[in-house]
From TrEMBL:
Organism: Levilactobacillus brevis
NCBIfam families, sorted: sm_term_P27 (TIGR01558)
Name of this chain's protein: Phage terminase small subunit P27 family
Length: 152
């Protein structure tokens, strides 16, 4: 299965594991700058619950200095926060009713597991896991250093 396309900056931060040429990385970076999205007005959507809005704002503050999140990411971050609230709800249901209900496994356990899988997927897309951040930060220290052999 082919990997999802990554931005030129991600390629550079990861040390260019796909061995893109400097010309191709420059072209991608130039095209991506044309598609840049503002991060000036990242607001939690009104349809989020209070708990989800609080989580949305907490994550927004954590990422303000990074310029990673943009206005285009609002909905995916909102879905992450909403799913987190669902996960907490399913967890509370399991705690209240137990693992078994009427001789069968509590259906909230299955829903909790589905929510956990979706949370993990969304967290990786948003850079909310240590692994996701590590993959972006592998060569971050050398990004600003000048090198006569490289343009990036």
């Amino acid at each position: 299965m082919p990997r999802t396309a990554q931005s030129a900056m991600i390629h550079i931060l990861e040390g260019n594991p796909n061995n893109k040429t400097k010309k191709e990385l420059y072209r991608r970076q130039k095209n991506e700058s044309k598609l840049a999205v503002s991060n000036k007005s990242i607001l939690a959507p009104p349809w989020l619950s209070t708990g989800a809005k609080n989580e949305f704002n907490r994550i927004k503050v954590l990422f303000e200095a990074t310029d990673i999140l943009t206005e285009a990411d609002i909905n995916i971050l909102a879905i992450y926060c909403d799913t987190l609230m669902d996960y907490k709800s399913f967890k509370a249901q399991v705690k209240k009713h137990g693992i078994m209900m009427g001789g069968k496994i509590n259906p909230a356990i299955r829903e909790k597991q589905k929510s956990a899988e979706l949370l993990n997927k969304l967290a990786n897309q948003l850079g909310l896991t240590p692994t996701a951040r590590a993959s972006m930060a592998i060569n971050l220290g050398s990004q600003g250093e000048s090198n006569d052999d490289e343009e990036f």
